[in-house]
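Lab meeting, action items carried over

1. Structure of the two-component assembly. Owner: GW. Status: complete.
Input record:
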Amino acid sequence: MTRIIVIGNGMVGYKFCEKLLAASSHGDFQITVFGEEPWPAYDRVHLSTYFSGSKVDDLSMAPRTWYQEKGIELRTNELIVAIDREQKKVISHSGTARHYDKLVLATGSAAFVPPIRGVEKKGVFVYRTIEDLDAIMAFGKTARSAAVIGGGLLGLEAAKAVMDMGLDTHVIEFTPKLMPRQLDEAGSAILKSKLEDLGISIHLSKNTTTIHGNGKLTGLEFADGSDLSVDMLVISAGIKPRDELAKTCGLSTAPRGGIIVNESLQTEDDPDIFAIGEAASCQNMIYGLVAPGYEMASQVVNQLCGKASKPFLGFDMSTKLKLLGVDVASFGDPFGETESTKAIVYENKNSGIYKRINVSKDGKRLLGGLLVGDATAYGMLLQMTQNQLPLPPKPEDLILGNRDGQATEGAGFKSLPAEVQICSCENVTKGDICQLIENEGLGSLDEIKSCCKAGTGCGGCVPMVNDLLKHQLKALGKQVKNNLCEHFDYSRQELMDLVKIKDIRSYDELIDQFGKGDGCEICKPAVASILASTWNELITRQDTIQDTNDRYLANIQKGGTYSVVPRIPGGEITPEKLIVIGQVAKKYGLYTKVTGGQRIDMFGARVDQLPDIWEELIDAGFESGHAYGKSLRTVKSCVGSTWCRYGVQDAVSFAIQVEERYRGLRSPHKLKGAVSGCIRECAEAQSKDFGLIATEKGWNLYVCGNGGSKPQHAQLLVNDVDRETVLKYIDRFLMFYIRTAEPLNRTATWLNKLEGGVDYLRDVVVNDTLGIGETLEKEMEFMIQTYACEWKEVVNNPQLRAKFKHFVNDDGGDPSVAFQEMRGQKIPASW
Amino acid sequence: MSANLEKYQTAATSRITTWFKAAPVSALPENGGACIKYKDLQIAIYKFSRRNEWYACQNLCPHKMQMALSRGMIGSQGDEPKVACPFHKKTFSLKSGKNLNGDTCSIDTYPVKVEDGFVYVGFED
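Predicted assembly:
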């Protein structure tokens, strides 16, 4: 058994262990890992998410139990202070000694701190570890403004973190450009103006000389004599390889830092010691990205396992990232410096987009380039650069898109050679993925991810993998069929037709006749939705095919309790009803919050309390708000012409009418509506699945808008129509969506996939070109007529009511439910 | 919370010392799950009515330490009976306890028998 010691438990050190285990058999290696931080390796690339709520566990590469299960001895909180190369042994600060046969130095790097007078002052931080972040967060609570030194990749990451804390943010960069290694001046200028739009102040060509303050910093002074007052400073200006341990044991280090290794990643002086990741200096280069670190880990693993290993001769530093919401990418030779090139540039200051590609002098090859504001073309451009693919006759099409109106989607994949690397973190090629699709029969992104790990690192290649998958499936002549899951060889639309034609009323009937197996968490709720959208029967009759929220008619929250939302149509509520909500919340000790949909959410109800709570609400005249369902949520309204001096129509009355018309309507995903009483659009109707905006002559109907993670404006379907006509069109629109959408597709996604887009939708809904208008209206009429409040039925039915218990053999609630206090209300104990 | 996780130990049918009379069959839903209390443990029991099989496992989902598996949807992956946690849809085999769609650690499973209209869960204690 070979004894391996890994010093450093960062991303690369962890990846080395993972790869070594995958490549070897049990018992080949005995692995010991030393990490000086208190926790197992975590994802440093996404460190800034710690400020927006991620916990140490979320960032963790693998939990401590993973190391245990794999038989790795993980010693955290332990710093190695000496390596005895004679005796092949390492010694930690606490005196632990371990012998090795092979030693891997993955000590990573520390923050580089430029020589500035006063860096020892209170309020000055570096941005590198979770402990640094904890200190920044604690100090940030008392600060109002902060400066970040460093306008590169790391500096802007730190700026995002500081901005997320709500501080007035300044970025200070020594050179005249932001991201000097990736961007040219024009690209930097676009990025600068985008960041300034976010409220960040950018100071370029500023050399910080002194940090002022008496004990605690108060401001910065620059070499040009100017100064800046700030309460806090974060230095994130680059990295410095952690090579001090290597130095003390006599290993050679590079003048600019880093442990010198040969192309096998062995240290120059000791063939049994390897260095990988940011600590290694390979041909006088330090690689401060994770992908080359992973590649180095692979090479060492191959050598240790006696497999073929190619020499490490440098790594492509092309990179694509999202900085503060702005896409930035650079690839190949971004500045056109390596050989004589011609640049093609597209710059749009209005929308904040800059693209540059460098083409060889003969116009035949792409050598590199950079993208700011829109990096969708990155994957393809990188492949063209790395594989020296022939350029199209008009190379500008690469950044401007094909302007002849013909679709180009996926067209480029055919020309990519099989050895093209698609996922650089896990080194997966196009050929690897195609092989899995063709020979192993893989047909989904998840299958590809779990089989070859492509897309599981930085995630940047996921869209590319997905496109490749679709392209390959099509090329194989496989119909890209939207089968629901392994239990049904039918799409949602086909199943809906079957349910209707064969008069199927239950999940069991459907799977017996048209499916196989026992179903799963994908097809059960999808079929439940289809049945509800077709027959509108009480969903609690088939409670175990519902997702937990629909099963318990409430929203599950952290800690396993539920939240309760009564319907408040249009957001209009009487003082009496407000008092009832207050009384109920008080009686059951519930946390209350106003929702984004103009109603009130009560959190922290145990499952056994739900029927009692609803009994009181129903007695006071409330009904279910269906906040738990893939169904109509709310129809938001502005106050409209009854009170507002600008209003031209009574928005509240119409919103109430619309909300009551479609309440309880089950659909492929949730539905939100809004009604605005005038053109000022205070109800934000253009961000809803359907939105109405009052005009002098009637109503404008907008459809398929979306908020959430991918906001999309709703599109105008029809304008200046009266109330009755608007309702008719919404009936048709919603029913058409319910009939044809895939499961869990919001209307916006559905419209994006609908061939012909909004024009086609208008043809169907308004012009009735398919001649189904009347049928759709009748189907909706049936839904409206058969509506019943689910909670009313449960409250009045002892059998249904009895299902709301935590234990079947004990009347107590869940004893593991625990709360803590925040601002005078309870919240669940965090996970 | 990880101390909580250690309370659960997969019980092998051959080593069962206690068959705990959990509940009448009628108290459990068809093709679904419910939770029972045994000492300080919470155990999820599932009735696969379609194949006339019963399974039991810890109610605690090891992903975010939530007492929720009994409220999950059950089903199959190939022939493997499984449950999906309602929180983040981590799925676990009810035969081996293995996490089927990720790297979350396994759950512990317990044997179930039905006699005279009652469901019994086996423990080694």
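2. GW to write a short summary for the group page. Key points so far: The domain at 113-237 of chain A is CATH 3.50.50.60 (FAD/NAD(P)-binding domain). Confidence is low (pLDDT under 50) at residues 405-411 of chain A.
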